[in-house]
């Protein structure tokens, strides 16, 4: 068995163990209608898939996550590079970063709805908001972690300041940027559920809210399982993309 097959087998075994423990907990320990075993949940998921409902909710949430994540990352990387590279910029922008990053995106939901309404813009804004500061901090930390000896060596070889940044600092910072983006992706899933709970016509958060109102317990667990599987799949795809396009900067991912 090659390495990739072994990895997939490990993933399948891990999920099998998770569902087995869930079944045992639901049938032997809890025994409550509020905590159904896996089989009824999977049957309900199959019914929702057959009706096209689950795909619609998943697609709506993923679209918002992708849009906000890309906007937040595109803004966070250059800001983080500037903060880490230039002391005047750090003195100017670091208070902003430290101030806003301690205001959670959930607390900004009301502001987002007031500014952008209940449409797509408010949800994309919240995802971008929860993404940007994680990426900024990780990127700035990466620039600060660049070894001084590497910079001095490049300068001794005649490299200009721009060349030092492009050929030494930036490649060394890429692993930190990618790590920050992975963490920000997890935050995006947390935030999109909260945003869709408050103001949305579709999405997994809306599905959770409606299921709670009508006490559709299986639907709640379908949404939770879908979120977990989507998060896992998204992280794996992110790692594959890193290996394909930036593996030489971060070979451990």
UniProtKB/TrEMBL annotation:
Report the domain of life of the source organism.
Bacteria
Question: Where is the protein localized?
Answer: Cell membrane
InterPro entries for the chain: MetI-like, MetI-like_sf
The membrane topology noted for this protein in its Swiss-Prot or TrEMBL record is: Multi-pass membrane protein
Residues spanning the membrane: 12-34, 65-87, 99-118, 124-146, 167-193, 213-233
Gene Ontology BP, a term? alkanesulfonate transmembrane transport
Q: What is its main location?
A: membrane
Q: Name one Pfam family in it.
A: BPD_transp_1
Q: Which residues form the ABC transmembrane type-1 domain?
A: 58-242
Q: Which SUPFAM superfamilies match?
A: MetI-like
Residues in coiled coil: none
Ordered alphabetically, the record's keywords are: Cell membrane, Membrane, Transmembrane, Transmembrane helix, Transport
Q: Name one GO cellular component term.
A: plasma membrane
Q: Which PANTHER family match?
A: ABC TRANSPORTER PERMEASE PROTEIN MJ0413-RELATED, ALKANE SULFONATE ABC TRANSPORTER-RELATED, MEMBRANE SUBUNIT
Q: What does this protein do?
A: Probably part of an ABC transporter complex. Probably responsible for the translocation of the substrate across the membrane.
Concerning its family, UniProt says: Belongs to the binding-protein-dependent transport system permease family.
Under which name does UniProt file this protein? ABC transporter inner membrane protein
């Amino acid at each position: 068995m090659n390495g990739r097959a072994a990895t997939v087998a490990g993933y399948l075994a891990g999920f099998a163990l998770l569902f087995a423990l869930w079944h045992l907990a639901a049938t032997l320990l809890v025994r409550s209608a509020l905590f159904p075993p896996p089989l009824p949940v999977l049957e309900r998921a199959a019914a929702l898939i057959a009706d096209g409902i689950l795909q619609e909710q998943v697609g709506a949430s993923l679209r918002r996550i992708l849009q906000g994540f890309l906007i937040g990352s595109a803004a966070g990387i250059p800001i983080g590079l500037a903060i880490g590279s230039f002391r005047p910029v750090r003195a100017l922008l670091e208070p902003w970063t430290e101030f806003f990053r301690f205001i959670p995106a959930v607390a900004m939901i009301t502001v987002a709805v007031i500014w952008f309404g209940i449409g797509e813009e408010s949800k994309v804004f919240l995802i971008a908001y929860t993404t940007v500061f994680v990426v900024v901090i990780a990127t700035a930390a990466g620039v600060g972690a660049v070894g001084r000896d590497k910079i001095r060596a490049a300068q001794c070889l005649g490299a200009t300041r721009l060349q030092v940044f492009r050929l030494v600092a930036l490649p060394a910072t890429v692993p930190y940027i990618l790590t920050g983006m992975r963490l920000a992706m997890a935050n995006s899933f947390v935030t999109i559920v909260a945003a869709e709970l408050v103001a949305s016509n579709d999405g997994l958060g809306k599905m959770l809210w409606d299921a709670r109102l009508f006490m559709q317990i299986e639907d709640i667990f379908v949404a939770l399982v879908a979120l977990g599987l989507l998060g896992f799949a998204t992280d794996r795809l992110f790692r594959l993309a890193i290996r394909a396009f930036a593996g030489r900067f971060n070979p451990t991912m």
